[in-house]
Input
Amino acid sequence: MDYSPAQLDAVYESCVAFSLERVSRAHAGRAISKALGMSESTALISANSARHLLRGERYRRTLNGALTRGLLERIHRETGEAGLKLALTGLAAHIAYFEETVSPTPQQRALHAEFTALIRAEDPSAIPQEVTNDEASYPEGSVEQVLVNKYERNRAAREACIAAHGSTCAVCSFNFEAVYGELGKGFIHVHHLVEISSIGTEYSVNPVADMRPVCPNCHAMLHKERPALSVEALKAKLRI
Output
């Protein structure tokens, strides 16, 4: 399915107006329906998902590939890297939700990787490392400039995640204490279900809802793709 630049421009303008609450959802839906020839019910769903995409928020209903691409292109063109980063945060959150609850989304993953490559040059094969600080609250994601951008992980959030979920890997069920005894007691990585490196700004994490304990091997495998695989998707790939 292909849309003309004029169609995509009309949709983008309607979605921006809806996102900024300048028009109602019904108004945006009618505009999208007219521009793309969609049914009004489908257009309303598209308007809602597009608003969340623009705001960097999770959305449940998938936009078709051509519309997602068109919106990302226009977001990048009109708002630059900052706007595109925000939209990619919303797309990553959608992918994580959809793959946990419905099925894999290879087309959406490919689009996320394609547009992420425009603003990031991070090595996709890099093994995620655990970086902690000792703050008492749970702010996450502040960027510290070193050789590459290092995204802060908060020690209190890590400990809260382990207290809630334990120290057994959520993917492969490996437990370091069970294998190494006292030496391995409490050792585990924690994985952010939505990558904080894709957010790029400080945000407040919910350690129970947003994080899972994973062993270093599974952590590396989760991050072999961009955005990261979901825990359930990696579980499905296990051969043990």
Summary: Residues 121-127, 131-137, 142-153 have pLDDT under 50 and may be disordered. Residues 7 and 228 are 32 Å apart (CA to CA).
